[in-house]
Every structure is written in C-alpha cells, then in structure tokens.
Amino acid sequence: xxxxxxxxxxxxxxxxxxxxxxxxxxxxxxxxxxxxxxxxxxxxxxxxxxxxxxxxxxxxxxxxxxxxxxxxxxxxxxxxxxxxxxxxxxxxxxxxxxxxxxxxxxxxxxxxxxxxxxxxxxxxxxxxxxxxxxxxxxxxxxxxxxxxxxxxxxxxxxxxxxxxxxxxxxxxxxxxxxxxxxxxxxxxxxxxxxxxxxxxxxxxxxxxxxxxxxxxxxxxxxxxxxxxxxxxxxxxxxxxxxxxxxxxxxxxxxxxxxxxxxxxxxxxxxxxxxxxxxxxxxxxxxxxxxxxxxxxxxxxxxxxxxxxxxxxxxxxxxxxxxxxxxxxxxxxxxxx
Length: 336
Ligand SMILES: C[S@@+](CC[C@H](N)C(=O)[O-])C[C@H]1O[C@@H](n2cnc3c(N)ncnc32)[C@H](O)[C@@H]1O
What we know:
Layout: E1 22-26, E2 30-34, H1 37-40, H2 44-47, E3 53-58, H3 75-84, H4 86-92, E4 93-103, E5 106-107, E6 114-115, H5 117-128, E7 132-140, H6 149-154, E8 163-170, H7 188-196, E9 202-203, E10 209-210, E11 227-229, H8 245-258, H9 270-280, E12 286-289, H10 296-303, E13 307-312, H11 315-321, H12 326-329
Parallel strand pairs: 2-13, 3-4, 3-12, 7-11, 12-13
Antiparallel strand pairs: 1-2, 4-8, 5-6, 7-8, 9-10
Helix pairs in contact: 3-5, 9-10
The structure holds S-adenosylmethionine (SAM).
S-adenosylmethionine binds next to helix 1 and strand 13.
C-alpha cells in the first residue's frame, strides 16, 4: 500500500485553491484523488479511464441557498456547473455502465416552498449527455429528524421531508443489472406459502391473473421495490448487514476524532451505495465517485470486491476518509 504526500494547496476551510489533482492514497482495491472533479476530468488520472467505469455512484454537492465551506454553487450557476460535468462523466462509462445520483429535496430560502433546482439539474444533466432514465428510486428514511424545521416543527404547515431521490441513468437502454443480487428476505407469509405449496390462484379484483404455481418456487428472496428503506434490519439481506449505520460508520468517526479531523456532515448511507454496487456491477468492476466526501462509495466497493476511484475537493474529507480502511486504522500519521 502506497501513501503519497498531497501537495494541493488548501485554504484551511477545505477549499482547493489550485487547479491541481493529486493521488492522496491507495488501497488494495482503489485510489482516492484530492482535487476538484472539473480538474480531475482533464487530468491523466481520469482520461485513462474513458469507457472503463462500470458504475458512478454519487451524491453531488447540494444547490445551497448560502455557500457552504466547500464552496457549493447556488441557483443558475449550480445548474450550469453540474450540467458541464454530464458529458465528461458519461464518457467514462462502459457501454453498459450506469450513473446513480442521489439528490435530496431543497427548499427556497425563507418561504415554505420547494426548490425545483435539483430536478432541473437532473433533467439538464440527463439531456446534455443523452442518458436514459432507467429508474427513479426513492430512499425513504422514516427516522429522519423533521425538516425544514421552521415550516414543519414551528409553523406546522408542511410535512416532514423524509426521502431522497435516487436517479439511475445509463448510456444504453439495457445497462448491466441483475435484481437477483439484491433480493430481500421473504416475508413470513411467503415462506409459509412456499412451505405449504398452496395459495388461491385465479383472477384478482385488479384484473391480474395469478397462475396456479407462479408463486410457489423459492427464488431465494423477494424482488426489491423502487422504494428503499434501510431502517429495518430484519428486512435486509444478510449480505448487506455489514453496512448498517452505526456499525459501519463507527470506525470512520473514531478515526476522525482521533486525528482531529471534522467528520463529513452529509455522508451517503452505506446501504444505499452497497445496494446499487451489488445490483449494477460484478466483482472486479470499477466504481467511481466524483464527489467522494468521506468515501463511502469506495469503502463499500472495496468490501464488495469491486475496484474503486474517488475524487474529493476538500482535504479534510480526504484525510478523514482514510479511516474507512483497515490499513489506515493503526496509522497515527496525519499525512495523505
Ligand atoms: C454530499 S457530499 C458527498 C458525501 C459522500 N457521498 C459521503 O458519503 O461522504 C458532496 C461532496 O462533494 C465535494 N465537492 C464539492 N465540490 C466539488 C468539486 N468541484 N469536485 C469534487 N468534489 C467536490 C464536497 O466537498 C462534498 O464532500
């Protein structure tokens, strides 16, 4: 394992001030780059990967009302910026590759009105790179704290915002995908049905005709729906249990604390990354996150035996992300 010193200038609040991209660290399965994605896309690191990335999984910076420390763009500028990345990112994909983008809801400043900017950005991104929308998936987190607080908790005139949109896009209309890789455990009633080998066949009020034997074969689990909820561990396939929240993030948070590095405030759920990596790639495929943050995507990809590449603009977040990998756990040096 090689750890390279990073020479990129940082202004102390995580902003990269030089148009410079450097390898921060490597693991057995991947590489983390420190720099802005717009620079990385022009660098040798990424031009060598054109047509070779099987899956991009990412949650882009949010279109913020006010600028955050890592310098998110706002409004029209955000739209233009995200759209400018569409073609170069799509060019990295294999012909059967996919892009999975998680975008939360956004609200207009000071009023109880939703911003349509995330949707506009998604549509522009799709159109600019001529991508297909394979499926819209909702990632529901019923345990999320009520927000936006002013309208939900205080005035009580809006409902709790409790899901993010996940947009699955691809170059081909038939990208690599296999829903048998992400089966849910059968419900007790389904297990019973398979055991007793009997149920009421015939026509349902909806018009669907249920065949006599169609539901009696044990396929190893139930086909997943396009609403994901990861709060019920009993409903998770065994292969995904290693990514459940507290357990999965504990090492990362401890590493950040021990090295006095701020933990990333907007980490992707490891289960979400794991779900799409299993669904849309095979072992040894290459998974890329252009806004890697704490490198949830890379660490999950490595655990699942995929290769990975991450790009992140903030040096703090790059440094903290080392805590996701075993080889850095006992490393007390601050270098990246
Ligand atoms: C929503 S966060 C991603 C979190 C990540 N999925 C995780 O699990 O930690 C978006 C990330 O994009 C990074 N970012 C913002 N502008 C960037 C740019 N131009 N190039 C690369 N990364 C950028 C931010 O620093 C932030 O960490």
